[in-house]
Design a protein that fits this description.
The complex is a heterodimer. By secondary structure, chain A is mostly helical. Chain A is built from five helices and no strands. In chain A, helix 1 packs antiparallel against helix 2, helix 1 packs parallel to helix 4 and helix 3 runs antiparallel to helix 5. Chain A is globular and about 45 Å long. Chain B is about 60% helix and about 0% strand. Chain B has 25 helices and five strands. The radius of gyration of chain B is 31 Å and the shape is globular. About 15% of the residues of chain B have low confidence. The chains are: A mainly alpha, B mainly alpha. At the A-B interface, helix 2, helix 3, helix 4 and helix 5 of A face helix 10, helix 11 and helix 25 of B.
């Protein structure tokens, strides 16, 4: 799976709605996986990561993207405080790009299921951004 | 908790009765007084109906207290009749001489009327927990209904009504003026009836029943509180009251959850995902709070032990809830609801517990609102504040335990209706795109694991709540009503293996979303994730070769296949299923339909399609206009979303 930074770059250069949808689904799943791994009680951001996981599932499922198969040997990320904060920053950036592109795609959709799915996914991205953003602007 | 309780309404009744007594020499609205005394007595009889209804007790099973309560009811009923007749006579006399009725200010009659209204409101409060249906059967509307049926609470109701009937008796001996038209003999008869009720009430006592506990629980019986939306700047007292209110609302919501059953669109995998996370966070915050309460120097030994046990149970419950949340990320339902009453209340509790336990009165799960957990030493040293926080924690943990229990029932029902789905790629390792089978029904063993996990969450959350029961009773926290109610009416033991724990489930959890491998060795048929539809057609190219399944699909009809795939080997059942399959095929042949396709997918009769489309409708789409999380086969174009929507549909 590509890194969050790579996915953000792919989203930013997506040439069509098709590409946006495909990359966005993958991005939501990437966010879900990382947030789920970080949502452990020892984390200072347990509630944050748990909430991000739920929102990422909503976005992923709205776009019909498949979940990735969990690895056999579960690895808990060994991120310290700073590492978690850094992960939050990167995922917030990804969520911001996701929201922007999905909102654009929704605006171009002519209503119906596509519009609903894209709008729901854009809302999920906004929820993730709201949870992870360092400020409210 | 600030919710209106039965005790509040009883107190209001008493205040009006006192006011009526204080004012009774000022006026002489005998008709009004008699009419309202009649109302009061009638409402008392209705209260006693709750504990003496025929479907609650039968003559054969009546215990001594129930016999006594029945006698009290009969006596008060006769008294009410007599008082009603007396009111009629008084009204007739008053009509004959209308000059005797000016009452410009609030008088005894009006106070008695308000007393009757308060008592009727108390009855209505009980009815919010226990409704009598149109056919006369009693339907429980909350967990409190079970408590209402306990002897302790039944006796408490009978005693409360008997005590207030004495107040009526005082009024019956008050006036004795023939000109007012009161029939003395009728009033005396009513008085005798109340005396008989009083005599019967002496038999309500029972040494083996917790009468004090019953009275406390009755007085604390709450009306479902309105939601108190959290806002920043709430003081600790507001936070604890809000937590208790959310907990009570969540208990009621959870209780009605299994009732929603198969027709519910308010339950979904996404809702369960969010409530699971919320429960994990609540358990974590509560464990942290209780841990900070446990000062080695300040805590009595017994309390110290109870705190440690509670923290341990909550930590385990938290881990179980977290595990449940992880599994929900791979499961979906034919409903796409994201938000429900339960998620709202659970989220409110998370916010308030977070604000109570972090150094930020505006704490939220957002990164920017995070704050360190403060030193709670000051809080711990103040007994009142400590009891208040302990009460809030107790309420939250109890509500989560109830939620787990009723979630388990609802999930059982969803599983039985086969409303859980998983992505094919998770179960088969790849996607058979050309069949459009993005979602498959979750195999029985996956559903079984979800249920087992919820048994663990329910059991461990209940253990935590029970440990807190002892603490609440020991410290006199206001949440001790929960403990008393649980003691009076213990929850039935959950079915299933009581020895289940996270460790024993671990291996199954590891393979939940990772392979078509069976999770339970004893159920080998369940190993095959979602058998193909029993359509007599060759497996599509690219489908994993699974000879047994494919051959079964070719050889057997849908009912027989269903049994086989569920691991049911009973030859009699299989023979009956085969007979049903043959009969169905025959009917379809007579109707000139292609029985194979139509049997395989009954919806095809409503929406005829091509064979390939039929094959793709294993889990067809459903529109969710409000929430919009329509699920699709992996989209390659936006327009494709509309055409190939393979989201599971409610059956």
């Amino acid at each position: 799976m590509e890194s969050a930074t790579q996915l953000a770059a792919k989203l930013a250069t997506a040439a069509s709605a098709d590409q946006t949808v495909a990359v966005a689904g993958e991005a939501f799943e990437q966010i879900r996986r990382l947030a789920n791994d970080l949502a452990v009680p020892s984390s200072g951001l347990f509630a944050t990561w748990a909430s991000v996981t739920a929102a990422a599932c909503s976005g992923r499922d709205a776009l019909g993207a498949p979940p990735s198969v969990p690895s056999a040997a579960k690895q808990q990320p060994s991120l310290d405080h700073a590492g978690e904060d850094q992960a939050a920053v990167v995922l917030a950036q990804l969520a911001a790009i996701l929201h922007e592109h999905l909102a654009q795609a929704a605006a171009q959709a002519s209503g119906g299921p596509d519009w609903r799915a894209l709008t729901r996914a854009a809302e999920a991205a906004a929820e993730i951004l709201d949870l992870l953003a360092a400020d409210s602007s | 908790m600030n919710a209106v309780t039965y005790g509040h309404l009883l107190a209001a009744t008493d205040r009006h009765l006192d006011a009526a007594t204080a004012a009774r020499d000022r006026h002489s609205d005998v008709v009004g007084i008699m009419q309202h005394l009649h109302r009061l007595a009638t409402v008392m009889v209705r209260h006693l109906d709750i504990v003496t209804a025929e479907d609650v007790i039968t003559a054969a099973s009546a215990s001594p207290w129930q016999s006594a309560a029945t006698e009290i009811r009969e006596a008060l009923s006769l008294a009410a009749d007599r008082i009603g007749e007396a009111a009629g006579h008084a009204l007739a006399a008053q009509t004959a001489s209308p000059s005797s009725r000016p009452f410009p200010e609030l008088d005894s009659a009006e106070h008695l009327g308000r007393a009757a209204e308060s008592l009727a409101a108390a009855l209505d409060l009980i009815r919010t927990h226990q409704v009598r249906g149109p056919d006369g059967t009693i339907e429980d509307r909350s967990e409190w209904a079970r408590t209402l049926r306990t002897p302790a609470v039944g006796i408490a109701i009978a005693r409360e009504m008997t005590a207030r009937s004495y107040r009526i008796a005082h009024w019956l001996a008050w006036r004795d003026e023939p000109s007012e038209g009161l029939p003395r003999s009728g009033l005396d008869a009513a008085h005798d009836c109340i005396r008989a009720a009083s005599k019967a009430a002496s038999r309500l006592d029972s040494s083996d029943i917790d009468l004090a506990g019953g009275q406390t629980v009755l007085h604390q019986l709450p009306l479902k509180p309105a939601r108190i939306a959290p806002h920043s700047g709430e003081l600790p007292a507001d936070l604890t009251a809000g937590i208790a209110a959310s907990a009570e609302r969540l208990r009621v919501i959870a209780f009605t959850m299994p009732e929603l059953k198969r027709n519910s669109s308010t339950l979904s995998a996404r809702v369960w995902l969010r409530t699971s996370w919320a429960a994990a966070i609540i358990s974590d915050l509560c464990a942290g709070t209780l841990h900070s309460f446990d000062g080695p120097d300040t805590t009595p030994h017994e309390e110290h032990t109870q705190l440690r046990q509670a923290v341990s149970a909550l930590t385990y419950a938290r881990d179980a809830w977290r595990q449940a949340a992880e599994l929900w990320q791979f499961v979906t339902t034919d409903t796409g609801t994201e938000v429900s009453s339960a998620t709202i209340e659970a989220q409110d509790m998370v916010l308030r517990l977070g604000r109570l336990t972090h150094a930020n009165p505006a704490w939220t799960p957002r990164v920017r609102d995070q704050a360190p957990r403060p030193d709670l030493a000051e809080l711990v040293s103040d007994p009142a504040a400590r009891a208040s926080v302990l009460s809030a924690v107790h309420h939250a943990v109890d509500a989560v335990a109830k939620m787990a229990r009723y979630d388990l029932l609802a999930i059982t029902d969803f599983g039985a209706a086969r409303r859980f789905y998983m992505r094919e790629v998770l179960l088969w390792g790849h996607q058979t795109k050309h069949r459009g089978r993005n979602y498959l029904r979750a195999p029985p063993d996956r559903v079984g694991l979800l249920l087992d996990l919820y048994r663990v969450t329910a059991t461990t959350s209940l253990q935590a709540a029970e440990t807190l029961d002892a603490l609440a009773l020991g410290t006199g926290a206001s949440s001790q009503t929960l403990a008393l109610a649980r003691r009076l009416a213990p929850l039935p033991v959950l079915s299933g293996d009581p020895s289940l724990d996270l460790a024993s489930l671990n291996e199954r959890i590891q393979h939940f979303a990772r392979s078509r491998r069976a999770l339970t060795p004893e159920a080998p048929r369940a190993a095959t994730p979602d058998k193909p539809d029993p359509q007599p057609q060759p497996p599509p190219q690219g489908r994993p070769t699974s000879p047994s399944v494919t051959q079964a699909a070719l050889r057997f009809g849908p009912f027989e296949n269903e049994l086989r795939s569920s691991g049911i080997d009973d030859p009699l059942l299989r023979a009956r299923a085969a007979a049903i399959d043959r009969a169905g095929a025959g009917i379809l042949r007579q109707a000139g339909l292609n029985e194979d396709l139509t049997i395989a997918n009954p919806r095809a009769r409503r929406r005829p399609r091509t064979a390939s489309q039929l094959a793709a409708t294993d889990e067809p789409a459903v529109a969710q206009p409000s929430t919009g999380p329509t699920r699709h086969s992996r989209p390659t174009t936006s327009a494709h979303l509309s055409r190939s929507n393979h989201r599971p549909q409610r059956p």
